[in-house]
Structure formats: structure tokens, C-alpha cells
């Protein structure tokens, strides 16, 4: 299970400024990630915490959101969804 620190809605224009997975792979600092891993293991939190590199796999069109939902007890899925089709009062972070 993941924990989201910032649950605000990110508009498509801002979302699309996030670097793609492929671009992030080219510039990741392996030594930095190893250092973070070392700190996690040293402090015994490697089974509870994770470091992730923010990236995107797709480009959103205006008026859409990438909505993360709990699909089952073990699986979360992200779906491109029309913002106008949602009751935003039911969305965390809205």
C-alpha cells in the first residue's frame, strides 16, 4: 500500500510537465538511490518505506484526470477519467 503526501488535484497541463519514465531513467543518480537504500536498511525501515522517482507514462488531455482507485485488496489501478464525470466532493484532496 502506498501513502500519498500531497493529494491535491493536478491539472492536465501541470501533470504533463512531469518528466516521462524514459527521461527519468536516463538521469537517475544510482549512487544517490543506493545511499537512500543504505539509510533505509541501516534504520530498519526498508520493509515499510520506499523511495520513488516521480514520472509519468502518458500525456493527459485537458479536462481529464489520472484517478487512482483501489481495485481489490492487493491492487491499485490508475484510470484516465473525465473530470466532469466525477463528484469532486468524494475525491480525497479535492
Structural class: alpha+beta
How big is the Rg? 16 Å
The end-to-end distance, rounded to whole angstroms, is 21 Å
**Which percent range fits the helix content?**
25-40%
Q: How many domain regions?
A: 2
State the major sheet: 2 strands, antiparallel
Low-confidence stretches: none
Beta-strand segment tally = 2
Number of helices, where a helix is a run of at least 4 consecutive DSSP H or I residues: 3
Mean pLDDT: 84
Instruction: List SSEs in N-to-C order.
Output: HHHEE
Strands side by side in the biggest sheet: 1-2
The percent range for strand residues is 5-15%
Shape: extended
Would you kindly provide a written description of the structure presented here, covering whatever features stand out?
With 94 residues, this protein is an alpha+beta fold. It folds into 2 domains: 1-18 and 58-94, no CATH class; 19-55, no CATH class. Helix content is 26%, strand content 15%. The protein has 3 helices and 2 strands, in the order αααββ. It has a two-stranded antiparallel sheet with strand order 1-2. The longest helix has 13 residues, at 30-42. The mean pLDDT is 84.
Salient structural properties:
alpha+beta, two-stranded antiparallel sheet, 2 domains, 26% helix
Summarize the structure.
Helix content is 26%, strand content 15%. The protein has two domains: 1-18 and 58-94, no CATH class; 19-55, no CATH class. The chain has a two-stranded antiparallel ribbon.
